[in-house]
Specification:
This protein is mostly beta strands and 274 residues long. A hairpin with a 7-residue loop joins strand 5 and strand 6. The strands form three sheets. Strands 2, 3, 4, 5, 6, 7, 8 and 9 form an eight-stranded antiparallel β-sheet that branches. The termini are far apart.
Length: 274
């Protein structure tokens, strides 16, 4: 499933559990704040993560009346050259975001009856893996995989959240793989006319700015068109008794792509040195 929306000021919902979640069990939305606008979240039964895509904001979080709120400023000029900030809070906590003066934020929520301390993840805490950076498949799957929190770092959470920087003309989430836990990809491009291809659920979607790919089953991979860099937020919901622990089931038909000599299946050793 792929969802595109005309983005307006305020909160733009894509998925809403349980009635309109496309089987993911997740809430997903884009918060677009203009002219110093503010927005509040309060979920009595869901944990919430608010990831700053671009702009400058003031985060506030605390008790239901926000009488003893914590306050922190966050600034991210863009999502392609700067690391993310993310506020992650448990159920029953009042959250407020104020734009200074404009900002766009990705919002994700899932049900969770566990209490845990709220945390503001800062850019220096982002875990980054530079995958495909050693010439694998002639550099065709070089990307940066960024994790804000997962089962290892936040076992009390029912979800995982991160970003991928997909270089122009490159592939990511590759070779094709799957896992039983539902996942979403929220797409951003360095130019508004940027586009790519999203392979999921046995279908191929044309991905565009602020589009959401919903992955419920099957092998999945992403690609960005040459000339257009893509960042996509990736969010996973743990299944009861089956959390995502970097679970990856590769498509056996394409498993040979992991072999050290995979490049030689594409070009001869002599051609590779040209």
């Amino acid at each position: 499933m792929y969802i595109e929306k005309e983005i307006g000021p305020g909160y733009n919902p894509y998925l809403k559990a349980p009635a309109e979640d496309a089987g993911t069990g997740m809430d997903v939305g884009l918060l677009a704040l203009r002219d110093g606008a503010k927005w509040e979240f309060y979920e009595p039964d869901k944990e919430v993560a608010i990831l700053l895509l671009k702009g400058r904001v003031r985060f506030e979080w605390g008790d239901i009346d926000c009488e003893a709120c914590q306050v922190h400023l966050a600034d991210r000029p863009d999502e392609f050259h700067h690391e993310p900030w993310c506020l992650h809070a448990p159920r029953g906590m009042r959250l407020r975001v104020t734009a200074l003066p404009e900002a766009e934020l990705y919002v994700q929520a899932v049900g969770n009856d566990r209490d845990f301390p709220a945390k503001l993840y800062q850019p220096e805490e982002v875990m980054t893996q530079r995958a495909g950076a050693n010439g694998e498949l002639m550099g065709a799957m070089r990307r940066e995989i960024k994790t804000l929190f997962d089962y290892e770092s936040a076992p009390w959470s029912n979800m995982v959240l991160g970003e991928v920087l997909n270089y122009p003309g490159k592939w990511s989430s590759y070779p094709p793989h799957h896992h039983p836990q539902p996942e979403v990809y929220f797409h951003r491009f360095d130019k508004p006319q940027g586009f790519g291809a999203s392979f999921a659920n046995g279908e191929i979607y044309s991905s565009h700015q602020n589009g959401l790919t919903v992955i419920n089953h099957g092998f999945h991979s992403q690609a960005a068109a040459p000339g257009y860099a893509m960042v996509y937020v990736w969010g996973i919901r743990h299944l009861p008794g089956d959390p995502w622990k970097k679970t990856r089931i590769d498509d056996p038909e394409h498993a040979w792509l992991w072999k050290p000599d995979a490049n030689e299946h594409i070009l001869s050793p002599e051609e590779l040195t040209k």
